[in-house]
Amino acid sequence: MRSEERHQRLLTLARQQGRLEVAGVAADFGVAPETIRRDLSELERRGLVRRTHGGAYPVESAGFETNLAQRVTLHVESKRRIAAQGARLLGGAETVFIDEGYTPQLLATLLPTDRPLTLVTASLSTAAAVADSPHTTLLLGGRVRARTLATVGSWACAMLSGFVIDLAYLGSNGISRDCGLTTPDPVVADVKAKALEVSRRRVFMGHHGKFGASSFCRFAEVSDFETIVTDTGLSVAEAHRYSLLGPQVVRV
């Protein structure tokens, strides 16, 4: 098998499975682990995967986006820590926007229940997760994207336009100092941008693999956020570079 063919097969597998393990792939392909490591390094150089210890995972782009089923299996412990730290930033907020995605869904279940909150979300999964809580949950209308089980479109944006929200918890497919926060789908970007616009405070939550990545549609700048919450996979030096753009960066 030629290297370019291996690269394409590796990328396809990574996108289907959500993660690759060097040892397993090398055995399946009948090549040495060093060959797979070189292949993954080349794919990382092209911005298609991110290397991890013993493997790699795919980078989201205009042509590829993980679905919710994959997201609930990737970086789970990091996402739990990030969500817990995000919940600690609630402060005195009474109205809260919770973005689509697994980390925001985890955060929604960790918000305090000793006082009533109004939660606004486009995510069907998040709305279901907090349906039995004492909070009031408003689910934005619109078309449901099968990949993320979240609503998008003009109805969702129109509903958001009528709100003034104390705090928005937002995620993205990529965040970089040059390109800001990005996502592959324009209609998703529209909802995120509108939530950002109507919120007094904004917190970004995302694992370290999001950093340095960029997708098709920009919906925010790094400076739009008061706080960025990520995991310790983001180096101290890189966290400092992001903090120079305005937000506090918290690594957990």
What does this structure look like?
This protein has 252 residues and is of the alpha/beta class. The protein has two domains: 3-59, Winged helix-like DNA-binding domain superfamily/Winged helix DNA-binding domain (Arc Repressor Mutant, subunit A, Orthogonal Bundle); 69-251, Rossmann fold (3-Layer(aba) Sandwich), CATH 3.40.50.1360. 38% of the residues lie in helices and 24% in strands. It contains ten helices and 15 strands. A seven-stranded parallel β-sheet has the order 6-5-4-9-12-14-15, with helices on both faces. Helix 5 (76-88) packs across helix 6 (102-110).
Provide a compact summary of the structure.
Keywords: Repressor, Transcription, Transcription regulation. The chain is α/β, with parallel strands linked by helices and 252 residues long.
Classification by helices and strands? alpha/beta
Cα distance spanning the termini: 42 Å
User: In one word, what is the shape?
Assistant: globular
In the CATH hierarchy, the third-tier topology of the largest domain is known as Rossmann fold
CATH class (first level) name of the largest domain: Alpha Beta
The number of E-state strands comes to 15
| Radius of gyration over C-alpha positions, nearest whole angstrom | 19 Å
Number of helices: 10
Q: Indicate the CATH architecture of the largest domain.
A: 3-Layer(aba) Sandwich
Function: Repressor of the lactose catabolism operon. Galactose-6-phosphate is the inducer.
Protein name: Lactose phosphotransferase system repressor
Keywords: Repressor, Transcription, Transcription regulation
Pfam families: DeoRC (PF00455), HTH_DeoR (PF08220)
